[in-house]
Design goal:
By secondary structure, the chain is mainly beta. 0% of the residues lie in helices and 52% in strands. It has no helices and 11 strands. The strands form 2 sheets. Strands 2, 4, 5, 6, 9, 10 and 11 form a 7-stranded mixed sheet that branches. It has a 4-stranded antiparallel sheet with strand order 1-3-8-7, with no helix packed on it. The chain is globular and about 40 Å long. The N and C termini lie far apart (39 Å).
Length: 117
């Protein structure tokens, strides 16, 4: 079983920054993409950002583009999400995920990010 362990969530003021990390363990992957999703109360889970194995190809939701940066360290099987210029509407539970076959197969437990106005 693949385990994804997240860290870095917390409370931050609007305009501030926060960094999230998620480390994968339990199975060795090759050429897998990793990504971040988020879910606010009463809302569906939405895509935030993803990154290819090489780290060259990155994708961002329009709502976070220019403010968030996704990166990875394959030696540590870890994906990061640097969040800058945070807004109240960024408040959500953030989840990391792994794609090794074209689908988001494995998910982390989620970490709460709360942005105060």
């Amino acid at each position: 079983q693949v385990q994804l362990v997240e860290s870095g969530g917390g409370l931050v003021q609007a305009g501030g920054s926060l960094g999230l990390s998620c480390a994968a363990s339990g199975r060795t992957f090759s050429n897998y993409a990793m990504g971040w999703f988020r879910q606010a109360p009463g809302k569906e889970r939405e895509f935030v950002a993803s990154i290819s194995w090489s780290g060259i190809n990155t994708y961002y939701a329009d709502s976070v583009k220019g403010r968030f940066t996704i990166s990875r360290d394959n030696a540590k099987n870890t994906v990061y999400l640097q969040m800058n210029s945070l807004k109240f509407e960024d408040t959500a539970v953030y989840y990391c995920a792994v794609d090794d076959d074209g689908r988001w197969d494995y998910w982390g437990q989620g970490t709460q990010v709360t942005v105060s106005s």
